[in-house]
Amino acid sequence: MDHTAVPPAPAHGNPAADAWYAEPEDAGVMVFTKDGYLSLLEIYSVSSEPISTWREARFVER
C-alpha cells in the first residue's frame, strides 16, 4: 500500500463506521482503521443462513 498517495484520515475510535440491515438478513458492515488508513472491512450476519444478496444502500441503518 502506498501511504504517500493519500494523507491519513483524522484520528477516531474503532470501528470508524458501522451500519446494518434490519431485514432480511440482520446483517451489517464495520470499517476499521489503523493510523488513519483502512485496516479491516467486516461484513457479518447474525442469521443462521448465509448472505446471498445485499439490499440497496438506501436501506442501511446507521
Per DSSP, the total helix count is 0
Mean pLDDT: 81
Q: How many E strands?
A: 3
Oligomer class: single chain
Q: Which labels suit this protein?
A:
single chain; three-stranded antiparallel beta sheet; 3 strands; mainly beta
Describe the structure.
It contains no helices and 3 strands. It has 62 residues and is mostly beta strands.
SSE inventory with pairings:
Blueprint: E1 17-21, E2 27-34, E3 37-45
Antiparallel strand pairs: 1-2, 2-3
Task: Provide a short characterization of the protein structure.
The protein is mainly β and 62 residues long. It contains no helices and three strands. The chain has strands spanning 17-21, 27-34, 37-45.
